[in-house]
Amino acid sequence: MYEIFVVCYLLVALALIGLVLIQHGKGASMGAAFGAGASGTVFGSSGTGNFLTKSTTVLAVLFFVLSIVLGNLTAKQSKPDDGVDFFQTVPALNEQAPAKQDDVNDIPVGN
């Protein structure tokens, strides 16, 4: 499920980038006002602006919705085990060497 959302997110992002790059800036409309080939377009003189603007709006809303959904799915996932518990410090055992026994009297002798 998560992978499907990630693939859709990527496709929407690429489509949004493509639509933004296709659109003309505000300065390009002055050339179209004087008949610079605007009537020869597929959508007419003003159709491309409305179509691309609406498409960009729909893709932007879809992009933000997918961002929120992916954020919620990621936040609800459990944290993977990173092995920190393995590296916790273990208290050192203070073992003392057994006292040496004197062979003759069986009395412990210090080191």
TrEMBL record:
Keywords: Cell membrane, Membrane, Protein transport, Translocation, Transmembrane, Transmembrane helix, Transport
InterPro entries per the UniProt record, alphabetical: SecG
Membrane topology: Multi-pass membrane protein
A Pfam family per the record: SecG
Transmembrane segments: 56-75
Compartment(s): Cell membrane
Chief localisation class: membrane
Family to which the UniProt record says this protein belongs: Belongs to the SecG family.
Known role: Involved in protein export. Participates in an early event of protein translocation.
Protein name stated in the entry: Protein-export membrane protein SecG
Source organism of this protein record: Alishewanella longhuensis
